[in-house]
Amino acid sequence: VYPPLLPMAPKKKPPGKKKEAKGDAAPSIGKKAAGAKKEKPAGTPKTNSLPMLGANDTTMKHAALEQQHEYATVIQQFGRFVAAVRQVSRKQQEIKAMKRAAHRAWVENIKQERKKEERRRKAEKEKEKKKQEERNLKQKFLEAAFEDDFKVVQKAVAAGISVDFQKENENSPLSEAAVGGAMQCVKFLIQNMADVNSKGQYGRTPIWRAAFGGHAEVITVLLKAGADPRITAQGEAPILNASGDAKQVLESWDESETDKLLVAYNKQREMLKQAEADKNNKTVNMLQKKISDAEKTDEAAQKVLCKARISLEQRITEYDLTVLDGKDELQETALSYVKNAEQELAEAKEKADLAREELLAAKGALRDEQENPAPQRPGIDVDYDDIIDVLWKDVHKKVRKSGKWPFVVDPTTKTQTFLRYRDIVYVNLLSSKQTESDALRRSIIGAVRYGKPLVFDMMDVDLVKEMRDKVNAVDPSCYNWLMTNTLITDEKFYQLVKPSDPAAYQGGGWDPGVIEAYRVIFLTSYGDPNEEFLNE
């Protein structure tokens, strides 16, 4: 659009005498003096005819117009140039801001992972330290029992070391005390309900080893506590290895007295086992309550993390809009909101990581108490270079043969980047727009109709419960259809089609060859994924 043409300034006449009106002209109305002469206005023609433009005047007008058009063209070109420069500048600022935001997120993620790894190493180091201290204390316990070092034995029992502990095919503390003739330790261990008939290396009992060592007083104490001198080791009874006073004690002992003592001994052992079981049950119940509390804390922390992540996504969207609209005055404010949201997300993520670590620690403590081995995480480790063959192409048909959909756990987010640049139907579970009921329905039927992978990205949040609820909002059975693949095998996808959908979805008869390429992929960058979902 050209600017309006400016009027040309009138040419100035050279200064000279003004012409007076002729004498026979009528005087002007309003003149005080009669016969006053009236001056003609400048440019008034002498006759009634219009002035004639000469060739020179027309040429000058055209030249002026052309010059004005040139000026207008230059102004427009300059304006377009300025607008283009501003647009490029805004785009560069947007790219720089996105790079800064991505860099901040990457740095923050690295910090979080380092803190998490440091806490894990510290916990493992502390756990290993306690185990080593316990091993050392047990070794000292055995040595002290043999050497009759009563203080060390007393300290070990007070520290919670069982009086009956023994490694496989090795001897108990009471057996070591018996062979060493440590009378004080033998009496102390028996008072603390040590098993007087426990079998150690080569099946030898404490009384068998006491007889072998020739400790008559120890044999007497053991016999009165219910030790059975008839138990053999490698076919030999204790009396066969005894000599001197030790042999006399065994020979003079009435074995019928042993039968009476064994009744009381067995009853005592049963009571001890029951007390130990009650203690273990109490500990287990306490740990189970701790796990329950940790699960609630973890769930609450995950909700806060989810809210913080959604808030950051919204703030980034708002900032992008200010950049696209060229609202420079709002960009700084929007960017400050993004930074605040990033800080809130970092704090929420750290709390969520701590809550998840406490939950895993509580579960580990329960496993240790019940002496259960740690469960092996299902799945396989895949190098990123092989992700195309394993996940995308399914070269060896492992995914298809398993009957389950793949759940990719990748804290580096490389797989997420790889998938987003593929021909897929991508659903960000943190996006309220993409997880709206009708939008999610269209994503599901679109993936089926055109045979594309349907990717549910949980980002770095545990969104299993939220994902289940949002999918079931499409249809109460939709989540089950997805997980069991009855969506395809029973053609349940037809039930999700609405009359308002495009014609390509209407009428049924979808191509099975196209549908065959459809599959579901679950993706998360959260390092400790939901165990229940892993088992699904």
Automatic annotation (TrEMBL):
Where does this protein have coiled-coil stretches? 265-297, 331-372
Lineage of source species: Eukaryota, Discoba, Euglenozoa, Euglenida, Spirocuta
Protein name from the UniProt record: IQ motif and ankyrin repeat domain-containing protein
- Annotated PROSITE patterns: ANK_REP_REGION, ANK_REPEAT
Q: Which SUPFAM superfamilies match?
A: Ankyrin repeat
Q: Where are the ANK repeats?
A: 169-201, 202-234
**Gene3D superfamilies the record matches:** Ankyrin repeat-containing domain
Q: Which organism is it from?
A: Eutreptiella gymnastica
Disordered: where is this region?
1-54, 113-135
